[in-house]
Amino acid sequence: QVQLVESGGGLVQPGGSLRLSCAASGSIFSIAVMNWYRQAPGKQRELVAGITVGGTRNYADSVKGRFTISRDNAKNTMYLQMNSLKFEDTAVYYCKLGTVVTPAGVRDYWGQGTQVTVSS
């Protein structure tokens, strides 16, 4: 069984920074891709950023130049450094691990979500 623990959310003023973490534990052989999604009230969940096991990154246009995704493959942990935060970044942020290979098979996993609130 794979467990995901997200942390790092909170309340921050516009222009501030936060760093989110998503740590996976369990019998994991590999994780092909790690993604951050977010969902604001009344809106659909959207992809914020993703990173492959090889380090290829992609970002939503709305966060390019402000957010940086990274991962530590040895620790099965992913990070999202968020700088220059804006009001519109307020949302619940979810990590998603794609194509996770374990002794039980291959599947995706979602984290429980962490609230990020940008407010003055």
Question: What topology does this entry show?
Answer:
Layout: E1 3-7, E2 10-12, E3 18-25, E4 30-39, E5 46-52, E6 57-59, E7 67-72, E8 77-82, E9 91-102, E10 105-110, E11 114-118
Parallel strand pairs: 2-11
Antiparallel strand pairs: 1-3, 3-8, 4-5, 4-9, 5-6, 7-8, 9-10, 9-11
**What is the global morphology?**
elongated
- Please give the share of residues in helix: under 10%
Poorly predicted runs are none
Query: Could you state the order of secondary-structure elements as H and E?
Result: EEEEEEEEEEE
Radius of gyration: 14 Å
Total count of strands: 11
- Give average pLDDT, whole number: 96
Backbone structural class: mainly beta
Q: Could you tell me how far the N terminus lies from the C terminus, measured between alpha carbons in angstroms? A: 41 Å
For the report, how would you describe the main beta sheet? 7 strands, mixed
Query: Beta-strand percentage?
Result: over 45%
The count of helical stretches stands at 0
